[in-house]
Amino acid sequence: MLISTQYNVLTRPNAEGHEVLCKVIVIEQGAEKLSTLKSFFEDCKLLGYRATRSNILSILSTNIDLGGIFIPEIDDQGGSCTALAIAINQVRPDLPIFLGIESGRKLEDLSENTQNAVVGIYTHGDFARMQELVDTYLFSRHYPSEFITGIKEITSDILKSSFKDINLVVDHPYIVKDKIIYGELFSLIPIETNWCRGYMMLQMEEGKIMEAISAKRALINPPEPNFRHVNAVLGELSNMIWGGLKNRYGSNTPENSTGKVRVEIPIIVNHDRKYISFGSDDPQLCFKFSLLDSSSNINPITIYQKFIFSLDWTPEKFAESNQSVTELVKGGELELF
Question: Based on the structure, what is the number of domains in the chain?
Fold first, then answer.
């Protein structure tokens, strides 16, 4: 693993359900500042990873998905990190960079290139400013805990029923701001209700699914598996998960949409750079599912599930929908079974 040390991991559920976390990288700095950042991250639901000036660019060239980067203007050796911030921005321009500056310094004091590379500045210990940056660029969107729980339940049930003799491990849900593609294979399917509109994406490695098919662990059992059978497995998984979400969260036809011109945004894919853009800077809600062979005969299968609600996101309507169901149950129109 290229990241030298995991800085802090939060895996606890909150009172309403499971927290959604965000992965960030911290460029190496003094112990006192790292300690302060650690406490701040714990309060802000951030997964912090520590990296060095020498390895950060190689880390960012790998297939690691992130929410943002915290970098000091001056490192603990007294060297300037502004050129590094500019270089990071050139490699991963979709990642927000938060620059820690010395007290008394202002954004205008930085070079124009540095100003363009970072999304904001903060001074050490100014938690209000740091919180403002995190809320604006990382947690600008609220995901209802019931929705998070529902996605995990539906996807987990379908994966467990689609592969034989497999133990499923589900990581904590998190959000990212970058647009990196994992593996060689991904599917896109529209997700659309009266309160959200966007896409669900499943990403995986072709070879791992091929191995599962050859070992007769998948639902299909062709005599000579090839890449088309892998595509069939991915397509079936996408359809079943989509159907489960549709059944739980409503029709794919938005309310009051008749006669309206619907907005569409181009999707851009750069296969060489493993990059996909949905035309906005909206965060992606991510789930990581690991399928482990109970007998250790095949390699683990990793599936990333990402939701991009770039066309519409009004979660307050989700709460209203839940309340309506509750009222119908209380009124006797619906009953639980």
Answer: 2
Q: Is the separation of the CB atoms in 148 and 17 below 8 Å?
A: yes
Q: Taking a C-beta distance cutoff of 8 angstroms, is the pair 168, 300 a contact?
A: no
CA gap 132, 128 in Å, rounded: 6
**8 Å CB contact between 5 and 25:** no
One-character DSSP codes across 108-141: GGS-HHHHHH-SEEEETT-HHHHHHHHHHHTS-S
The rounded distance, in Å, linking the Cα atoms of 117 and 107 is: 12
One domain, residues 204 and 299: yes
The domain in which residue 260 lies consists of 145-331
pTM: 0.74
Backbone φ and ψ for 54, nearest 5 degrees, come out as -75, -25
Classify 204 as helix, strand or coil. strand
- Classify residue 134 as exposed, middle or buried by CB count within 10 Å of its CB (0-12, 13-18, 19+): buried
Q: Quick one: 298 and 179 in the same domain?
A: yes
Map tokens 């994966």 to a residue: 159
Q: What is the CATH number of the domain that holds 322?
A: 3.40.1550.10
The answer to whether 133 and 119 have CB atoms below 8 angstroms apart is: yes
Residue 207 lies in a domain: yes
Q: pLDDT tens per residue, the chain (337 residues)?
A: 232 223 222 333 333 445 688 889 998 777 888 888 888 998 888 888 888 888 889 888 876 778 899 999 988 788 889 999 999 999 888 889 999 998 778 888 899 999 999 999 999 889 999 999 998 888 877 788 888 889 999 999 999 999 999 999 998 888 888 788 888 888 899 988 888 899 999 999 999 999 999 999 998 889 899 988 999 999 999 999 999 998 888 754 555 555 455 666 677 777 677 778 777 778 889 999 999 988 878 899 999 999 999 888 888 777 655 544 455 445 544 444 4
**Count of Cβ atoms closer than 10 Å to residue 121 Cβ:** 21
Instruction: From 110, 137, 164, give the residue that closes a domain.
Output: 137
Contact between 262 and 208 (Cβ < 8 Å): no
Residue 324 CB neighbour total at 10 angstroms:
10
